[in-house]
Predict the structure.
Amino acid sequence: MAHINKEFLIDNSPENVWEALREVGAVHQRLVPGFVTDTRMEADTRIVTFANGVVVHELIVDIDEASRRMAYAVVGGVMAPKHHHASMQVLADTKGRSRFVWTIDVTPDELVGPIGEMAEQGVRCGTRCCQGTEEAKLLPSTVVSQPAPHAHASQPRTIT
């Protein structure tokens, strides 16, 4: 199983960023307009259409107001991972900014490339939307780990 972790700062308050993130049925309007072109809810599943034409069905697993964290899993659509689980959390930074943490676990490992690239595009778009104009300031903890051959432990590697 591969692991993608994105951590970045947004020059906006955690309350404002959380307000945009928590509206899971409006990410195409509130969080990543242009990157996501449509979102619709069917019960607890959101159907997301990306600008590149990819459509995914995401089960909304949890929306935790107290910790400003939401979790979801891809359960259908054109990308068909064997397993996918992700969470996004908005934390307070000491300077009144938001630290956004996005963690994705996925298998098969071949999906790390396309999902990692889409996550990177989402970071750029979401940051511009939440703070106005500036690009995301990626923190050095942005890593991917994949299983080592014939071992259970994973070896981290940096996404470029």
